[in-house]
Write a structure and sequence with these properties.
Elements lengths: L1 H18 L19 H15 L2 H15 L16 H5 L2 H19 L4 H14 L15 H12 L5 H31 L1
Helix pairs in contact: 2-5, 2-8, 3-5, 3-7, 5-6, 6-8, 7-8
């Protein structure tokens, strides 16, 4: 059955491509209504993310350094590296690199599963829920990563980070953060009920 569907989809996109040569045939006609991106925007973010995906650790370390520059108080949330007060200490810390890789892998997994909204939502809800176990973690902290994330992606993509790409990443990280918060909130209310 999978093969039939694939053939059907391939035939359909070839036919569409024949009628309208301006759009690449690999773009699906529509996206999941839960995704706040158009098919073209989703394609752009997934395609450009490949470059970030090859540099997850340096991108993540830079993101965390930017996070702590702007929100020094958040450093106290991280028992493993709260004593790293300088940028130099942070950039050479194995613990910070490890955590940066974990967070970037979460974002990597999220962006790569934009094609499957059920998988995307399930995964990010679980990650959001896991943050309820961190003592003193506030759901608003998720928003603090937005700007450092965009700065880090811009640094990694360099000249490929056009205004259009930036706008798509803004929509994407906002959606990811909102999904993490939904997972966090649900876990909090489930805890309260039990």
């Amino acid at each position: 059955m999978g093969c039939e569907l694939t053939k059907l989809a391939a035939t359909k996109s070839r036919n569409q491509a024949g009628n309208d040569s301006s759009s690449p045939p690999s773009l699906p006609a529509s996206t999941d209504p839960r995704l706040p991106l158009t098919a073209k925007q989703k394609y752009t973010v997934i395609a450009s993310w490949k470059a970030v995906s090859r540099a997850l650790e340096p991108t993540g370390i830079y993101m965390f350094i930017r996070l702590f520059e702007e929100n020094a108080e958040l450093l106290n949330m991280f028992t493993k590296f709260r004593e790293l007060k300088t940028k130099e200490q942070q950039s050479s810390s194995m613990e910070l690199a490890e955590h940066a890789k974990t967070v970037m892998s979460t974002l990597d997994e999220g962006i790569k599963s934009l094609d499957d909204m059920d998988a995307f939502l399930t995964y990010l809800h679980e990650v959001g829920a896991s943050h309820t176990k961190i003592p003193g973690f506030n759901r608003q902290y998720f928003w603090k990563i937005e700007k450092p994330f965009l700065d880090a992606v811009e640094r990694t993509l360099e000249d490929r980070y056009s205004e259009n790409v930036e706008n798509i990443y803004k929509l994407t990280i906002k959606f990811i953060i909102e999904t993490l918060i939904d997972g966090f909130d649900k876990a909090q209310s489930d805890k309260a009920k039990s």
